[in-house]
Amino acid sequence: MLKRLIEDGYLNAHKLLLKEQTRLGVSPDEIVILSALITLLEKKKLNVSMQALAKLTNLNTQRTGEVFNHLIETNLVHTELELKSDGKEKEVFSLDPLFTKIEELFKADIQIVNQSKQEKDIQLIIQQIEETFKKSVTPFDLEMIKEWFIEGFTKEEMDKALETCRNHNRKTTNYMDRVLRSKDEFKEEINESKKETIHKLIRGIR
Predict the structure, then answer these.
(1) C-alpha dihedral over 80, 14, 4, 100, to 10 degrees?
(2) 41, 88, 166, 177: which one has the fewest Cβ atoms less than 10 Å from its Cβ?
(3) Rounded CA gap, 64 and 36, in Å?
């Protein structure tokens, strides 16, 4: 996905590389070589040539080769032999490993944001339930709330269910659970990782 966005010109790979250099754990020389490889990729010149690569940098050919090999060892660059039209082989490079690693960083960022939002949602729903029911939540209530989040009910759905409890003057989590499940059409498959995340958030809040 990231590679396609770069190839289509929606993302500037050079700026992206500079922004993520610390998290990628790359050295200044490696940044120079990766940036040069990105330039060659943009020009669709994928042949591996240390001389051509060195010309795009301020590094000599020997240092260019050393850095390039280290990028292969650290799985940021991949090379393979490709058959030319004349039947001969040529070595070409790919930056797919680099783009995959950056994608993984982005996905981790999104997961942190989502977890933070979920923690905030849990805190809010507990507070709203206590205010509506005019009593502190019990361990049973917390277990019920935890299950709602694990099963994929949204904060908006819980808000509506809580409003129904308020309107009907039925101030129990059991009734709120019935309201939620009466509107339950499809919920995403529950996985163990998601369960454990919710368990940790609940334990951290109370």
Answers:
(1) 60
(2) 88
(3) 11
- Tokens 């040529």 correspond to 90
Three-class SS state of 58: coil
Q: Per this entry, what is the length of the chain? A: 206
Q: Token pair of 80, please?
A: 């393979």
Tokens of 136: 């502190």
Mean pLDDT value across residues 113-136: 89
CATH 1.10.10.10 fits 2-94, yes or no: yes
DSSP 136: P
pLDDT band of residue 201 (cuts 50, 70, 90) is low
Domain boundaries, the chain: 2-94, 110-205
- Alpha-carbon gap, residue 53 to 93, rounded angstroms: 12
Structure tokens at 48: 């591996």
pTM for this prediction: 0.64
Q: Which two tokens stand for residue 85?
A: 């039209």
Cα 165 versus chain centre, distance: 37
Total Cβ atoms within 10 A of residue 26: 21
Alpha-helix residue ranges (DSSP H) falling in 88-205: 96-133, 139-150, 155-168, 173-182, 192-205
Say how far apart CA 39 and CA 29 lie, in whole Å.
15
Residue whose C-alpha is closest to residue 145's, from 161, 118, 166, 126:
126
Q: What is the pLDDT of residue 196?
A: 64
- 3-state SS assignment for residue 79: strand
